[in-house]
Amino acid sequence: MSSFSLPPIHDNPDGGWGPSTSNFPDQFKFKDIPYAPYSKSDKLGRFADWNDLSSDNRQNVAGLPPTQGGRGGAQSGRGRDRNQAFGSGTASAFAYFHVEDESSFSLVDNKAAPPRRGTGFNRGRGNARGGASYGARGGARGGIRGGPPFRGGAAQRGGGQRRGWRDWEKNNRTRESSVVISPQWGMLEEIEFHRLAKLRLEVDEPEELDSYGRLFAYDKSYDRVTTKTEKPLQLVDRIKYNTTTSDDPVIQQLASTGIAKVYTTDVILSVLMCAPRSVYPWDIVIVREGDSLFLDKRDGGPFDTVTVNENAADPPQDPTPPNPNNPTEKPAVPETAAINTATSLSLEATYINQNFGFQSVIENAPPPPADFANPNPFYGPEETEPLASCGYRYRLFDLGITEDEDIKICVRTEVDAYIPGSGNPRDGQGLVTIRALNEFDPRSQGAGGAPDWRAKLDSQRGAVVATEMKNNSCKLAKWTVQSVLAGAELMKVGYISRANPRDNTRHVILSTASMRPTDFAAQLNVSLANGWGIVRTVTDMCMKMPEGKYVLVKDPNKPVIRLYSVPMSTFTGDDDEGSDVGSGEE
Questions:
Q1: Where is the composition biased (Gly residues) (predicted)?
Q2: pTM for the complete prediction?
């Protein structure tokens, strides 16, 4: 019978749990061993992964020291055990480094690592979707849908950061401000867009002060245009004024009577009311004279043109200016795509909007034009060119919160035509605003995923409208707000495309849509109460300042507006530095 002897019992004469440290054997005292941090949530990984034969793992199998910052180990693999263990960032005291002579070592298996098959997008398809292969370049997942392969997986290249489709091709160049910020300007206030989106102010129906201009009847034949019966867009030579607030003689006369606190136009006011939707830079010149505020625009500024796909995920870009130190550097935008840059598209859209409004009215045939109470205030006796169809309605809105507050705003609004048989236009019946959306090239950069209008406009108009509402959210919101401010009953929106995608000089009218501004505002999720809240906030902010000139600037790359104090000579021609305009993306 085998003998059994009890192991020695190490008693603790001092009391307490565990053996005494005095009589505990030295081999169990873990002397000179540093503390290794650990966590209860640590998972036990694989001791050796014989399937993941990356370069660093092959070194480990061969007994070689691992490469610093390598891609092998349990954290590369095939997506398993990628969570970093607690304390793994510290230097390990238990790492093994082989420092003996290895001259006699020889590798038995020197075959290349076999490619992985049946993984990812090319599972069982033999690289039919663009050649996404997992070869010796580290399991690249490139080439999907014909894209160029890139070295290393996304987790290996960017530390696990997920990127969007073709993000490496997007031009992330920062935009320039719409106006040069002079060092002499003093920044007074800064408001983020998320704060503006929380404002709200209910405003009652306005009071009409006076009306000016002449309106022609809208040609209803444009409502029957389809992609199969398209009409060419004509060049119509007409005069239409876009005078700023301070230069308006009617506003100057109204301001002398003190009828309001704030004076502006519908174009300027719509930009301010839709500010949280804006992406491109803009600026508003604010002048305080006595107890009155005048909101003005600059000549040649962003208010004189129309943006294109401003709210698209990848909006049109202007080419990067050439580097004088590197004359061989290629431009960011090829010459063949110069007509699709942000500036070219903006000028093209402005041209389309003006000519579509001139063309879609009846001038020399019944029904006759409708004259407002007064003639056009900007058409001088020396002018000889014919006037465009345009009516100006000066309207007074009350921004007071209580009955004791006397904060009113006088707005010059515009209408473009009237619907015959809908009532007297002088009484505000049947008034119409006319706008135009333009298609340039659905395959070019900045198109925003827009479908081909000629193929989808008649059969799937909803998809076309939804795409335009997404890519041009700010522009459509501004047009809707202008129509509501003017009291228009309808808003006519033309769909105009290039006759040839490579030619930006010839266009055709494919269709025209009619919508009520209030209903369309609900579809766009445009809140007039939020817009009036923004206007009231900016008004209160400026009324706290002393008399002088200020500039409200939208940051070109951030959802922020800033108020600057500027000299009175700025933008008047006397101050050359202040009158310089930046190359904004408008």
A1: 121-162
A2: 0.70
